[in-house]
């Protein structure tokens, strides 16, 4: 007389270990891809914010050149601060004396390390009188740049974007 044994269902310990090792390998190879993707997203945000700020600075300068904003002799025509782009400047040609606004708010540098800093303080500012190689703040804001010491995926420091 033969005894019938029930067939066993499930996985052996070896099969489970192999599956876990394969899963760990897949996840560890995906982590660098996720880091690059996150960095690329921050870089795109940095480019967009730099474009917005520089466009607003150029629009302010154009408004000065067109006579929509008063300029005193000796001034460059660039805004004295980034905050003035948000606060607005009175238009002397408008009979109602409405303000001209260039930005709704100052964007934040996505690579700024200190979350307590106000948005304006996250940017480096270069005055019209300073050189490109050694940017320095002054009486006006001619250009903005990131204060981050990091390098982008294109191997160019963010300060030079």
From TrEMBL:
Keyword Zinc among UniProt keywords: no
Keyword Hydrolase: no
Entry's Gene Ontology BP terms: protein secretion by the type II secretion system
GO cellular component: type II protein secretion system complex
Key words of the record: Methylation
UniProt name for this protein: Methylation
